[in-house]
User: Which sequence fits this backbone?
């Protein structure tokens, strides 16, 4: 498993040195997922957060009518987990699966908390990560309440600049909250 | 300013001792807001996060059509800020104002970051706070995409058990994303 992408982030954003990186790396477990293979299913307890090294994952929920709602895509360089289940050890409300064959590095919550006591800079890295994820999620919540589907589609393209033509359109529709037919109409407009 | 409510949280959740609490308290600044008075207006840079000691604040955005969308209410015991503006020092997209006369303790981002170096347990407190806020906001985002307005209203009542009859109904309507007339209809149903 080549985790340079992750260690690069840790060195650059939080100043971890080689010794810290080695301790952190020793807690990571490699995993591979074929397209449509699940890391987590609704109702399971999430043991691991995943850092995507290659491919692409997504987190989504299934509503009572069987409709999927995409919370997040995770291309290389992104973390993905059901944060609620991961920190509470309660049953997950989300499914997480690969949408392209993916390689990931897994980290359990227990290992993460133990590492925070050994490497305070790692707690800082994850504190900043949580703050940034909070800003993004709040922004998206407000956008969903106040912007049109077309505006939300253009924000999707900015958030995930490499995914627009790379993943099934029905997943993008499910992320911005419209039918695939409506997304097709938006894409057709100049 | 009586900040026992805040120091109680810090002692209980993060094990801060009296000396740490005194250092933290020395960075807090008291402020009072009359109903409808603003802590932050859209377009300003957010200097301070506010911990609500009494009364109630709210954060909301105004869309291009003049409609308000409530991101958050903050009754006593809650923090409130435009996280995006507070951490980036860029212009805010949110307004924050009192909906009932409020007393708050203000903390600047610069002071917070300086305190993290002096009191690692404080960084832990705010890391956990950011994680929990992320879980709540993600949950609300998924609920907005998949639940009915009536279901969202009942979740509002659980999230803010003391606010249902205590604040203007139009603000609750704006939080769950319906018109006041539609909320009135929901409340009338058994």
Assistant:
């Amino acid at each position: 498993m080549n985790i340079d992408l992750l260690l690069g982030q840790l060195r650059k954003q939080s100043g971890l040195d080689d010794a810290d990186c080695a301790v952190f790396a020793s807690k990571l477990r490699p995993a591979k997922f074929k397209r449509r293979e699940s890391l987590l299913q609704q109702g399971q307890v999430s043991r691991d957060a995943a850092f995507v090294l290659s491919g692409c994952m997504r987190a989504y929920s299934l509503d009572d009518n069987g409709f999927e709602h995409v919370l997040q895509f995770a291309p290389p360089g992104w973390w993905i987990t059901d944060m609620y289940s991961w920190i509470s050890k309660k049953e997950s409300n989300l499914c997480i699966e690969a949408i392209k064959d993916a390689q990931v590095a897994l980290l359990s919550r227990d290992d993460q908390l133990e590492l925070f006591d050994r490497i305070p800079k790692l707690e800082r890295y994850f504190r900043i990560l949580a703050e940034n994820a909070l800003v993004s999620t709040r922004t998206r919540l407000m956008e969903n309440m106040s912007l049109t589907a077309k505006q939300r589609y253009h924000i999707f393209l900015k958030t995930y600049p490499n995914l627009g033509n790379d993943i099934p359109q029905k997943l993008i529709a499910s992320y911005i909250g419209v039918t695939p037919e409506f997304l097709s109409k938006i894409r057709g407009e100049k």
Remarks:
- Chain A has a mean pLDDT of 94.
- Chain A touches chain B through 32 residues (CB under 8 Å).
